[in-house]
Design brief:
The structure is a homodimer.
Chain A: H1 3-20, H2 25-32, H3 36-48, E1 52-56, H4 64-74, E2 78-82, H5 90-107, E3 114-117, H6 121-129, E4 139-142, H7 155-166, E5 171-172, H8 183-191, H9 193-203, E6 207-210, E7 212-214, H10 220-223, H11 229-237, E8 240-244, E9 247-250, H12 258-262, H13 269-273, E10 278-282, H14 288-296, E11 302-306, H15 307-315
Parallel strand pairs in A: 2-11, 3-4, 3-6, 4-5, 6-10, 10-11
Antiparallel strand pairs in A: 7-8, 8-9
The structure holds a DNA duplex (30 and 30 nucleotides).
Chain lengths: ~325, ~325
DNA sequence: GCTCGCTCTGCTCATATGAGCAGTGATGCC
DNA sequence: GGCATCACTGCTCATATGAGCAGAGCGAGC
């Protein structure tokens, strides 16, 4: 038995006594016939070699070292990473992430006077996790079109209104479909005084809060009837990994289909990229690819996500 | 938000900074605007409420608190429980347990002069994990019959011989089948001078080392041809949960089929129960029921097992 | 409205732990 | 064989942490 093998075993024995039996290093020293300094060094070694895993088991637990890596290695202004420890379903993950986003918004300083928001399942859940009085006097403005065409009408509006009401402010809705069938209609809608005014207000927002959708058949665009499953398949063929504020991007963050993009109402991606504070909230394995594109192409300054997605961004 | 809810969240934030960022309690106090004593109390609370999980990730890691519970709540003289953290296959679990048994034997004081052993997959693996010179002059004697009939001939012998050779001693084999077809044959064999002498030696052993088999078709008795799958099914119907030294017992540790037992060669269970040192080694979910019967009915004084089996014994 | 008792807070003091440092023994190199 | 090097050991000292305690704040009960 080699010496470092003996030391490895001793460090495990020491760790058992230290962490499971709450003995002092001195007591362990007596038990294993070592000096307390040797015990201290064995424990340090065990930690350093990764034999000791400390996990914080709580729905609200975050992974600060991963957040730091995201800031440092991906140049984000801030990152919130929720722990996946003990998560059993994608819904639970989504909820944790939405809760973390709500917490982040609530703690945000300075409080934004005008907050631009997108809509979708994630945004709706964030709105539900915000507490009454999370802010005082936050005005919310929709940054992309989204009057639902068929199913679940009004969730887009309910999201914006919910965030605004709980924040003691009012919501300004963008009264337009997400994607128009004809370019002329889209241009006409954008020329409309009310719509133009809302978009202008959206451009002036202090902060943006949005999610991204995966490019697959479960997309809200399919569910809402703006795109058919065939449309999505075509986009995927062209390299789409997902959409941000209704605009489909490839893995480099470039618009996949400029013609489709021209028929999409709302803030452009470059306007989003120019924002001083753009908070992207994405979780779940289906969003790994979009999340990567969003972060790489600088679409957000702040990322709220789960541990697995974060590690995907960092380690590929 | 209730006060204890705020405290819960604060304790999670504190735990993140303490365990993941290696901040001192004082630094955390400054960051969260708390006194360092409050931080200390929050951390203690987080531990106490079970939000902090510390795991030792190593094949040789043991679970000392569970071992203690087994000693105290099940009256065992000693218990060795290996961690299941990071185990991916039943084979790996079996290996860890065998390794632990080998370690236990090596560290055993006083060193037994005569060691009685059973045979089977577990025992064979233990023999392989023992190091040359694990003891000096240990004589090994088989405590139950087991000349394999068809497959893998000689593993029973190889086990005993291996343990003896590595321990600087010699092995005494029990030259008899495990189970005889007729009672008369069994009695004749036991009357044989050599066989009687081996059994007498087995009775005088200082310590016994044995495993138990589950009562299912994968049993070594089926594999070796002593029992048919139909025999096993019948035993299960009569309440058998497994076998110890070839003798099938129910969940209370009683012999299931006295007629079969009478045809089984080797130490009786009561002889085993009377031993001052009887080390049972069992691991894997298939052995939960037998392990329970063995421990409850006092067949062993020392138990070597895995975490999951141990928890099954303790919490049902 | 007052008092009793309880919990929680911020402290002092004792203890446990980590950083750094000089001596020691082993190892390899000439 | 002698010497330089280096990892490792056991220490001193500074710091971090936990135990225990007095006082403050708060609520229940009279």
């Amino acid at each position: 038995m080699r010496v470092d093998e003996i030391d490895e075993l001793l460090s495990i024995r020491a760790a058992e006594l230290y962490y499971e039996e709450n003995k002092t290093q001195d007591e362990i020293g007596q038990a294993l016939r070592l000096t307390r300094w040797k015990v201290g060094r064995l424990l340090a070694q065990a930690k350093q070699r990764g034999f000791i895993r400390i996990e914080i088991l709580h729905p609200r637990a975050r992974r600060l070292p991963i957040e730091r890596r995201l800031r440092e290695e991906r140049g984000l202004a801030d990152a919130i990473v929720v722990s996946t420890a003990g998560v059993h379903s994608p819904e639970e993950l989504q909820e944790r992430t939405a809760q973390a986003a709500a917490d982040y918004l609530t703690a945000l300083r300075p409080v934004p006077r005008t907050l631009g928001v997108s809509w979708g399942r994630t945004l709706f859940e964030i709105s539900q996790h915000l507490r009454n009085g999370w802010a005082t006097g936050v005005n919310v403005v929709q940054i992309n079109g989204g009057v639902s065409l068929n199913r679940r009408p009004g969730t887009a509006a309910a999201t914006a209104v919910g965030i605004a009401q709980k924040g003691g402010g009012s919501a300004t809705l963008l009264p337009s479909p997400a994607i128009l069938e004809r370019l002329e209609t889209k241009e006409a809608i954008e020329a409309d005084r009310v719509v133009a005014g809302v978009i202008e207000l959206a451009r002036s927002a202090d902060a943006y809060l949005f999610s991204a959708g995966a490019a697959d058949h479960s997309s809200v665009h399919v569910e809402s009837g703006y795109l058919s499953t065939a449309d999505v398949d075509l986009l995927v063929q062209k390299g789409a990994v997902g959409d941000v504020v209704g605009r489909y991007i490839d893995s480099d963050g470039n618009i996949v289909d400029p013609a489709l993009d021209a028929r999409t109402v709302g803030l452009t991606l470059d306007e989003l990229r120019g924002a001083p504070l753009a908070i992207a909230v994405m979780s779940g394995s289906t969003k790994h690819a979009v999340a990567d594109a969003v972060v790489r192409s600088g679409l957000c300054t702040v990322l709220v996500t789960d541990e697995a997605t974060a590690l995907h961004l960092l380690d590929g």
